[in-house]
Amino acid sequence: MREKPGISEEQLRVCLREQYDLIAVTLDFLPLGLDSKAGVYRMVSEHGTPYLLKVKWGALYEPGCLVPRYLNDQGITAVVAPLPTKRQALWNQVQDWTVIVYPFIDGDTRWTGMTDEHWQELGTIFKRIHQVLLAPSGFASLRKETFDPTEYIRWVRAFEAHHLHARHGGHDSERALRSSWVAHQSTIDGVVTALEKLAKVLQSRSGPHVICHADLHPANLIRDHAGHVFVIDWDDVMLAPKERDFLFVETPADNPAQQNPPFFQGYG
Question: What are phi and psi of 252, to 5 degrees?
Answer without folding.
Answer: -55, -30
